[in-house]
Amino acid sequence: MPFRSGFVCILGRPNAGKSTLLNALVGEKLAIISPKPQTTRNRIQGIVNLPKSKGQAGAQIVLIDTPGVHKPDSSLGRKMMVEVREALEGCDLVLLIMDATRKLDQRDEFAIQMLKHSSTKVCLILNKVDLLRGCKGRLLPLIEEYKKLHQFHDIIPISALNRDGLDILLKQVTAALPAGPPLFPEDQVTDQPARFMAGEIVRERVLLETEEELPYATTVIVENFEEGAKLTRISATIYCEREGQKGILIGKKGQMLKRIGTSARLQIERMLGAKVFLELYVKVQPNWRESRGFVEELDWRRQLEHLTDGRVELPKTSKKSYAR
Ligand SMILES: Nc1nc2c(ncn2[C@@H]2O[C@H](COP(=O)(O)OP(=O)(O)OP(=O)(O)O)[C@@H](O)[C@H]2O)c(=O)[nH]1
Ligand SMILES: [Mg+2]
After folding, report:
1. Is 40 in the pocket of ligand 1 (CB under 6 A)?
2. What's the CATH number where 309 sits?
3. 16 CB near ligand 1 (under 6 Å)
């Protein structure tokens, strides 16, 4: 059996569990997760290396997590959908993740529509089956409904949260990939620079600590990321859209910002395996989600072009407790 490798795009509606699946398969926390839809805003690469074993030749699966498919109503939303299309381009397989606890509706059909113009194989992944418990009988009729919408290469029920069904998923994904050599060095888990992941960790804390419009109206830019022998110094700005939002983010006597900062710093320290000094600022950028220029500036691939020293610090693989 030959070694197999290829790009696998994880696609689906907001909140279906795409990022949870990426992290579970890679075994590292590469993407932030929250119960709020539209958490992921850019495509995120994560690499799974499967070693040779009895009867298996080994494989390298390059997963690409994407923002949830939705009809965009802002520059940010349009940019998110560009990220989805770029991830779909040239991939060898699509994993369409659907929430098995929800009935099919028009928004699911909209996600499936995105696949109609490509000839790439699509596996339907029915996620969150842990929530079905005694109602597993609901799966079969749901599968029948999905089958009417697309000819799927395979249909696999999983729980990304509990890691149920992931071995079967990996086996089926490997079998669907073309024969070919590894595409990336074995010690590389992602192409995201650590400085960008640090910003995402701050954003995750904001998402978890705030309610209503605020999670959607905030973004984070890392202004400075300096790795020293003993300490990594990071300064980042949380942008929001209105003065009132800024007040909430800072909180009474700065309590909210302090809470966000402390929990983000602890997570970043675990990711980097180093002590971190984290400085956070809050600024108002009215209607930034509508500003194409500002939204483009958030793209880390673009931010890298402006970094004067041109250094990209990729996070170290830890395989420790960070992922779970
Ligand atoms: N019960 C259960 N919850 C899950 C499972 N997978 C994900 N979740 C939860 O679903 C919510 C959304 O998960 P994410 O991984 O952020 O979903 P996503 O598809 O990446 O969402 P967007 O980035 O917003 O498109 C989180 O609260 C997860 O904990 C699962 O298998 N079972
Ligand atoms: Mg996500």
Report:
1. yes
2. 3.30.300.20
3. yes
Report, as an integer, the average pLDDT of 234-243.
98
Which residue, by CA, sits nearest to atom 14 of ligand 1? Answer: 17
Domain of 50, in residue numbers:
4-176
Q: Is residue 15 within 8 Å of residue 71, measured between CB atoms?
A: no
Residue 192 near residue 45 (C-beta atoms within 8 A): yes
Encode pLDDT of 278-312 as tens digits: 999 999 999 999 999 999 999 999 888 776 554 55
End-to-end CA distance of the chain: 33
Q: What is the number of domains present in the chain?
A: 2
Region 206-227 average pLDDT: 96
Instruction: Return the CATH number at 15.
Output: 3.40.50.300
141 and 214 inside one domain: no
- Segment 42-50 mean pLDDT: 97
Pair 311, 263 in one domain: yes
